[in-house]
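Attaching the record inline, Q. Sequence:
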Amino acid sequence: MSDRKKVVRLAAMLLVPGLLMPVHAQEAETPVEAPLNVDKELAEGLAAFNSGDLIGAMSRYRRAANSGSTEAKVRLAWILDQSEDNAGALRLYSEAAEAGDPAGQFGLAELYANGEGVKRDVRRAVKLFEAAAANGYPRAMMVLASAYREGGLGLVPSTERAEFWENRLADTVKANVPDRTH
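Structure, as predicted:
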């Protein structure tokens, strides 16, 4: 196990029990806090993560996730998944997927495809990969193109389906690449 995975796992073990507990209302005499700036929490969480401060990143992502941010749920779920807290990752990916978030659908699909924290279910994984791909998630399109080309995920190889997802991926990437000719 790499040193980074060990640190992630340790951080998750130390923080997850407190972070996964629901936030309870403050006592009546406690002053009301200003509304949470989710974008700021996401940005500060990413900065903390990029600097190697997993505890800070998880704390920021947890606050934003508790405010309903599916992006924060997906980011925190990824950290938990990497630290082998599959139950926590499953819960957060599920919440994001149920909200229609394609990254949440993709993360949940990976858990089902690999049997991490759940019984392996490639049919459910394929449905989730398809939902994420239909919602424009490029990584899901790549997974489906590869699975249809090679017969992975229990799919019957199909050049036609593989090319469909490859073309959809190319169109998606092209649509999201800025035109630098001007």
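The chain has a mean pLDDT of 86. The chain has nine helices and no strands.

More tomorrow.
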